[in-house]
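Internal tracking record. Fields below are filled automatically when a chain is submitted to the structure queue. Please do not edit lines marked as system-generated. If the sequence contains nonstandard residues, flag them in the REMARKS field before resubmitting.
Queue: standard
Priority: normal
Entity type: single polypeptide chain
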Amino acid sequence: TIAIIGIFYFTLFLWVGVTIHAALASPQNTYRIVLWSLILTVTVCGIIMLVLIFPHAQTVMTSLQDYLAKGLEEFMTAQRESGLALEDIMDLKSNLSKHLSDAIYIMPFAFFLSLTFLFVLNLIMAKRFFTGFFNQLTQINFTVFAMPFFAVWLVVALIAFLLANKLIFNHKILFFANVNVLLVMATLYFFQGLAIIFHLMDKWQILGFLRFAFLIFLMITLSVEMRFTSLAIVGLGFFDAWLDVRKTHVPPKNNGATAA
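SYSTEM-GENERATED OUTPUT FOLLOWS
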């Protein structure tokens, strides 16, 4: 098992290197290359998991539930030792099965999220430390990342379908697929929101200590009020389709002759 996991991670990091190399060859298409690489990686891993795990689904699910339950028990023990109120601990215990179910439902999204941060962090580190060796890295601008406009309607359709499934169909598989795709879209809009924030910091010349202080403040806010702050950043990225804060929507040029 350890050997298989080691080969998997080696292959994954090798694929990250291939993706970054492709991005260097075409810096103007960096985000498209990374996004398609992520989609391909998740698809291949999903197929492998279906082939290897599906025949033993019941055993795997039981083992996974036991693993998550043990983790939650350790978390509650740590919280109890840190002085968490008894009623809060009892509430966690009474909702243990629900927390386990929620965790299992969003595992594909969690895998996508970890891959996304792996790709993005490697790109950021490459640009930060290896620009002197690869001039193409200077052409990669993280502040211009934007989702295509049609993605807005995809999100609207996903939300509508989620509500329809809850009210009419009530099908677990549909709910599972819908929630994970919706969370993936939220992640992409989260990065768009971050791109807008960094664009505004560049525009307003927030550099040096002020930039560092703002980033620390943002990280503290995310750790303390993660849900509200994350939703705010996702909302900023989503509504930028209409706000166009960075003025990325260039109207088509009128090449026709204008009558006098």
